[in-house]
């Protein structure tokens, strides 16, 4: 049988469903199954998707017909070849066949964002230097955001029992997406092996008067959208599920403190990568069309993302057709990190940056009594508070400010919301010692349009 016709529209790759009845094939029934993203022409009927997948030894996990992306499972080692190497990709299979190199690189990056210290009991407000840096305490006195606004936290899950978060988390808007199909059971979106999402959530909307802890927009709601699996990976199918969930549930803002694995770079013209890049691009653009502003961390490799020629996680060349997902997609607000001193964190990526926010730095130490060098927020360890460093910690500061703006300007399209967020940021110019920082104070490669400002967002 002839291969399905591959079409290109707007730079995207997909295939029309095969017109002829597929001949029966012998499928592997014993090997390890892997999950794939598979691209189709948007609007392709689910029945046509089912027919092709079955004919090529796959089964449907989920299908997002609006964007023409299927999530499929297959035990066949040649499933990607059967579908087409530009149409199908499995991050899980890629990791399993990578001889551990990607896993080792991933582990080094993730370790940076481990919880560094646990705060002692008492009034924590004095230790929240990160909030003071963006004028969040003054903003809180004026306006704390609207319960009509939900921020989707695409991450490792949120501990809804934490005293600072139990009033903010919206169970009815939360879902687990680690399989690529949304699961609304509480266990599916609760944290299991990581407190990363809980820490992010506290920065955005936590509030615990007894502990003296307050996030940026404690008046808004949070949706736990779990995209990180128990091994710490965020595969393309999870991200697709998360962005579509955000779109269909009307979240004005999402926070994305991750890059999609097992990259870090996906190349839109390479076999396999092309399917992952296209699937994620469609999901993000679908969410943007449905009113979602997606905010993303710049990454913690300390390099200029615009000049990389190699991928530190996978041995392949990188060119202008490649990007770190999700931040490489148009419309996503990319956030770099600064430490207590207000200069770029040593680990923060730079290059194409929209705004900057506090993410900590081990060499920028606050004075005694003002907290650890890494921002303090909620953890899953018995309802306690701990510090983490990373652009993952910077991104929710920007998302929190965006949530205040979304509360004030209900229904503002994401493009305009981003414009207000960047326009109200406080410019940060390149210091003379920052020789790799290029551009003017109001838009440079280290700090973008500047440091986000919560007070300006509520004036």
UniProtKB/TrEMBL annotation:
Keywords assigned: Hydrolase, Protease, Serine protease, Signal
Domain Peptidase S8/S53, first and last residues per copy: 147-450
Any single GO BP term: proteolysis
Domain of life: Bacteria
Keyword ATP-binding: no
InterPro entries reported in the protein's UniProt record: Peptidase_S8/S53_dom, Peptidase_S8/S53_dom_sf, Peptidase_S8_Asp-AS, Peptidase_S8_His-AS, Peptidase_S8_Ser-AS, Peptidase_S8_subtilisin-like, Peptidase_S8_subtilisin-rel
Active-site annotation: 155 (charge relay system), 196 (charge relay system), 392 (charge relay system)
SUPFAM superfamilies attached to this UniProt entry: Subtilisin-like
Record-level Gene Ontology MF annotations: serine-type endopeptidase activity
Family: Belongs to the peptidase S8 family.
Name of the protein: S8 family serine peptidase
Species name: Amycolatopsis mongoliensis
